[in-house]
Amino acid sequence: MPSPIAPSAPLFPRRIGRALAVAVALFAVAPFASARAQEVTTVFAAASLTNAFQDIGKLYREKTGKEVAFSFAASSALAKQLEAGAPAAIFASADTKWMDYTEGKDLTLKATRVTPIGNSLVLIMPADQAKPVTIDARFDWLTFLGADGRIATGLTDSVPAGIYAKAALTSLGQWDTVKARIVGAESVRAALALVERGEARAGIVYSTDAAIAKNVKVVATFPANSHPPVEYPFEIVKGQDTPATRAFFDFLVGTEARAVYARYGFVVK
Q: Which CATH number does 121-221 carry?
């Protein structure tokens, strides 16, 4: 009589064991992944701060090992994104209007407000067409622009550069003359690009934007008293005043960051 065959070990418990092992491994990794994600400080910043903030973020990473993520756009667009619930830890605006707006909506912390830098407003042209001019109440804009020339700047009802441009032209008594020639862009960097590509006869941007462009030249600086001061307030977003946020916020106004601002032509206060 043949001897009985011993039954093989059931597979089901073995599969359960493997599944449990995978689950334990995932559980062990998840907190570390979550912690890494939480280490990234997200900053909403005006488009004109792009180059300076990217350099400052790199310096901070080299010194601390901490990551910083940036979202650059017009201050108006960023303020609206904050209002819609977009996640950010710090907001750096190119004017006081939109910072006041986020404060009024209880989105940012007024107690953290600092205004470490400023800028100037300039008129630019494509480099191969640029000729210095003097902007005052007597400047002949229509002759300067020619038959169909356009001026690129930010949207004059929302983008800070455009708001400053409209204020300056209005103060000089020239707004009604040139408003039909204005091309409003979604950000000051977008306006700069229109001039760089030769799609606009001239542009009204910040001096720091003109400084980083290769194909444009500044032909005039608007009188400082023709528009409100170009200022950059920074604030921490409500609910984000954590040690990590505070550490980078302090770095943004520290000695090393101020050296970067100066290198890009900002007025350091």
A: 3.40.190.10
